[in-house]
Amino acid sequence: MFSPATKKSSLSARKNAAVKRDDNSQLTPVAENRRQLHDSPAAGVPNRPATGTPAPWTSRLSVLARIPPKGGEKLGEQDAVQPVYVGEFPQVVREAQLLLSKDHIPGDVSISGGMDKDTSLAWIICGNRVFIWNYLSHGASRKCAVLDIPSTTMEIGDTVKSSFHSNSWLVCVVNWNSLKRNARRVIQQSNSVGVVICNKKTRTLIFWPDIYNVDRISPLTCVAFSEESESAYLHHDGKSISSKQLQQGKNGSINSLIASAIPDTTNGCIALACSSNGVLWQFLCSPSGIECKLIEHGMLSLFSQESDHNPLVASKGYPRSLIWHTFGGSSDDYTRQFFLLTNHEIQCFAVKLSSDFDVSQLWSHEIIGTDGDFGIQKDLAGQKKIWPLDLAVDSDGKVITILIAIFCKDRVTSSSYTEYSLLTMQYKSGVDIAKPIGEKILEKKAPIQVIIPKARVEDEEFLFSMRLSVGGKPAGSAIILSGDGTATVSHYWRNSTKLYQFDLPYDAGKVLDASVFPSSEDSEGGAWAVLTEKAGVWAIPERAVLLGGVEPPERSLSRKGSSNDGSSQEERRNFSVAGNIAPRRASSEAWDAGNRQRAGLTGVPRRSPQDEESEALLGQLFHDFLLSGQVDGVLDKLKNSRAFEREGEINVFTRTSKSIIDTLAKHWTTTRGAEMVLSIVSAQLGEKQQKHQKFLQFLALSKCHEELCSRQRQSLHIVMEHGEKLAGMIQLRELQNMISNATATGFDSYSGSDARVSGSLWDLIQLVGERARRNTVLLMDRDNAEVFYSKVSDLEEVFHCLERQLEYIITEEMSIVVQFQRACELSNACVTLFRAAMQYKSENHLWYPPLEGLTPWYSKSIVWSGLWSVASFMLQLLNETNRLDDSARLDFYANLETLSEVLLESYSNAITAKVERKEEQGTLLEEYWKRRDTLLDSLYQQVKKFVQGKLQDSAEENEEQSKDILRKLSSRLLSIAKRHESYQTMWSICCDLNDSELLRSLMQESMGPKGGFCCFVFKQLSESKQFSKLLRLGEEFQEELTMFLKQHPDLLWLHEVFLHQFHLASEILHGLSIAKDERPISAVESSKLKLTLADRKHYLNLAIISAKAGDICDELKMKRMEADLNILRLQEEILNLIPDNEVKQSIVKQLLPPVDLIELCLKIQNRELSLRAFDIFSYTSASFLRSNTSLLEECWRNAANQDDWETLHQNSIIEGWSDERTMDILSETVLFQASSKCYGPEAETFEGSFDDVLPLRQQSSEVPILKNTNSSVEAVLMQHKDFPDAGKLMLTAITLGAVGIPCNEWYPMQ
């Protein structure tokens, strides 16, 4: 690592070295392979094409020598830390490499290449041609674009470059669909890509607007330095540039190139390039031409770096790197930020992607200075020079990583060395990344991570060849590419730095570039991908980095000291991780490589060595059973190995079952094409099914099944689910075959491609297979369909892709007819999987453990979410069914109906399992009910449209014919509705058919714990005011009617009258009339019965009539009802007396409690209302009077305040009132009238009397010792302000009112 490549030895020298190696050495090829290495390439390697290019499934050159002989280490142990071969170069690239090697001396041949993460494109520049292909696509579908570099661009200026020296080009891929989501390319490769390349030395830029139409659109060229641009150097902010600097501007080489598409243009892009002398260039590229100009902003400081005279900080060859700053949350598509790495700082710029394309500097941060808190501290002892080499930014745009090299000298030993480290910076908290403001934008995220503490000293040319990338797995790792063709992954794990070196043999070529496999999840990247010079594309699994990483060595390892050179045995032992890299195809154990790693990172229980031993023992015992059929001692052996202690996915029986159904056939290859792959799928799946059935027999005969059934139900259930999934996969393969045959007889409506590999089901298979390939890099060289049909245990991923990526399987660009066809195909696939699982379960039900509380795989949220995604899309298409003929419409309806049944069944099973586990299921029930009603209601509306359409076609309108058609078309829908208690659909069908017998039949069959369909029917009849029909129907369902009426007392009284239970009807009506408005009429339903005062009076009158109609009439209850009726009347009178305002509007329809009515009377100063308060008291109970004595006293105070007693007293003295005159005037006072109402001879009270609570007069002159000092009306009046003068008049008024004797009896005529 980090050292220049030494001179390569010839092929013959390597052959001789291989012969001299010990045959027992792991690096020594087996005899047959050694013979192949000495023979000619074309004749020595089996299956090699005539061109001499190795077959993609055949190990090549000395890479072949690194495959150990059979019987060596186990796959999981030896291959855990090895990279994985992903894919071969396109054939056209191989041919160009072979031709180039024949025409030139090997030492003079140079090949460059790279990878683009966003588009998943890789490129190789071989000679004067650029080859571009998608490295994610498998060989059978891979296509390669070939671009010819114009010969005129090879000789410009003072530099003459041979065409075969191709490593002097910088390449940028421009995705014209960058604003769109790129998941569609899983199915269909993007056909909208441009390419910009720039020669480092000559500064020549070439632009291909469309790489897939090079025959029609010629490339455009431009030179960065011209006479017109020279003036840009002459002045900057009024300051002149020296002639030496001007010469550097002409001679500087390009270090970095970036490009971006320009919005709202056709194949237009902007490219930015920085040169080693501090110059930034801007290129505006379009199909019509290229405009080049110098960016002047900040250039003076870049030119003046060399005048710093600081020997510690490197200045030559800067700025080094340009990268785009992509961050989430940016809503402005017309502005992009980019970073520029100089010799001592990071600069951030913004470029406008419109109009004048201005470039402005946003901020800069010094990473090499005197303050170590903000970066690297310089001027430390031992430091000689510091080089910032490259920088990279994470996918969120928040963390920036810089690769640093420091030349040091040990003052003790006087030895010189280079220290390599990674500096990570992040945006400060609170900084707006889109619009950063402030001086200090960045801060250190973590201490500097030292990669190599003491590496050998290299020259600047080698240092500047290093490149840095971030974003791959493991999370937080970085990969460093060096000029000698090695790639090293650095990962900070468990408080230490671990290094993993990817280093291929010399004859496999250098590492050209590295990228990250796109992950199936948007939030994270995938494994590291590596492009080699001759050995194709490789992947570095996350597991390999974690398990194969080593501590940083004291000295770096170049190719001279790598494990691929047989002369450096000692260094190979010190850094053994670099050795034993074998290109291999993933076997059935490849699935576990990713799964085990994910378990360790996500908190899933990890498997112990004991688990591994138990699994190995179980595998051996099962293998012996297949050979001999004997199971003697199996149960005891497995018990002794503790095989029954783990539950769930990590159980050894579950894992063995999974390995059976997930076996990856070794003879499947991508180069044999999709037709060959699919032709052997059925046979392979059949073999798996037979072996899985044998495994079940093994469990039964060995009594393991019995043990699992009693102790580990979940594990046994998973084993049986594996059989269900395998049966579903077999049926899905048959469905695909049937669709392919049917399509082959006609034509493909959309893609026009091969019928065997087209259609929505095929696209779905590609999506699921692609997702599995990306999650397990060991499978990257496998075909998508091959991976899909092999990964049986992950059948749920089908539904995950339907939920997430349905829009890419059925696009808006497709015709409406094709959308219908593809939706039906997906629906049919989902139904096929579900039915196959159910059929397997029915046929093998005796094998299953008790299922209480266990959720089937087809009832998990991932499954019903995918089903709902398809169903909801089909619901949207229902509005477009008028474009189809009758047969197509009926077929589409039947597919949606069947899919709805499967979806609802999935929900039902999940809810049942939750209930059995006593878990909360309210949210799931709500979702289930909502989607059930949506689906079935839409389906029934479609049925009605079918009926209307058929009647319109008929010459005569026949009601009976309409009902017959409706009955026929809705029969299955009615069955689904009955199964899932969709009462609204059942009711609608019965009403439209006007079939009372069908209604009664459904009511009999759908009786639930809460009344079922009966209560729903009663509710519908009640809402439609069909009370008589409701009661007549209730005679047949008396229990359900009683249950319904208890929840609806507004109808219960009518039922009691119907049964001549008048006293019960009276009680119900009385309760209704005085029920509070806030109390729901039903304890089950949230709806409330809103009654007006008129309604309450009506119910009370009916209650009185019912009470009188009964055989037994309770006088006390009758009196109470009459009192309540009087209170209602009083409320009406009170409301009529109060003025119209907001308060009145808010209470006009409410039933006010007596206390509220009395307080309302007191609040409004009115003579009539003051008397009404006493009327309310008279109709209440004795307990109410006792508990509201203070309120009664307040009523007397209010009554006294209604008259001006002081004036009355003065008038009586001045006018000298006679007794008759006094009587007449006092009878008009409120005190007199209130006394007459409460204490007079005609006073009426419901219960008790006012004297019991508040006597009219005090019994003695002494003050009673009571809690309430106001023990009488007289005592209350004594507190009145006018009582000292007019007290005699007040007492006379209440006394006369209580006596109630007319005036002529008190004062006879004289």
Shape category: elongated
Count of helical regions = 49
Residues in helices, as a percent range = 40-55%
Query: What class do helices, strands and sheet pairing give?
Result: alpha+beta
Radius of gyration: 46 Å
Largest β sheet strand count, sense and barrel closure: 5 strands, antiparallel
Strand content: 15-25%
Topology diagram in text:
Blueprint: H1 11-20, H2 31-38, H3 41-44, H4 61-64, H5 75-78, E1 84-87, H6 91-103, E2 112-116, E3 121-126, E4 129-134, E5 144-148, E6 155-156, E7 159-160, E8 169-175, E9 193-199, E10 204-208, E11 220-223, H7 227-234, E12 235-236, E13 239-240, H8 243-251, E14 254-261, E15 269-275, E16 280-286, E17 289-295, H9 299-303, E18 321-325, E19 335-341, E20 345-352, E21 359-366, E22 368-369, E23 376-377, E24 383-393, E25 399-409, E26 416-427, E27 442-444, E28 449-455, H10 460-463, E29 467-470, E30 478-481, E31 487-493, E32 496-502, E33 511-516, E34 528-532, E35 537-540, H11 542-548, H12 569-574, H13 590-602, H14 609-628, H15 634-640, H16 652-661, H17 673-679, H18 681-701, H19 704-711, H20 713-745, H21 760-775, H22 784-790, H23 797-809, H24 816-843, H25 861-877, H26 886-916, H27 922-953, H28 959-979, H29 983-993, H30 996-1005, H31 1012-1023, H32 1027-1034, H33 1038-1046, H34 1049-1058, H35 1062-1074, H36 1093-1109, H37 1115-1137, H38 1142-1147, H39 1154-1163, H40 1167-1178, H41 1182-1187, H42 1189-1201, H43 1205-1215, H44 1219-1226, H45 1230-1239, ...
Parallel strand pairs: 22-23
Antiparallel strand pairs: 1-35, 2-3, 3-4, 4-5, 6-7, 8-9, 9-10, 10-11, 12-13, 14-15, 15-16, 16-17, 18-19, 19-20, 20-21, 24-25, 25-26, 26-27, 26-28, 29-30, 30-31, 31-32, 33-34, 34-35
Helix pairs in contact: 14-16, 16-20, 18-20, 20-24, 21-22, 21-23, 23-25, 24-25, 24-26, 25-26, 26-27, 27-28, 28-29, 29-30, 31-32, 31-33, 34-35, 35-36, 36-37, 37-40, 39-40, 39-42, 40-42, 40-45, 43-48, 45-48
Keywords: Nucleus, Transport
Family: Belongs to the nucleoporin Nup133 family.
Main location: nucleus
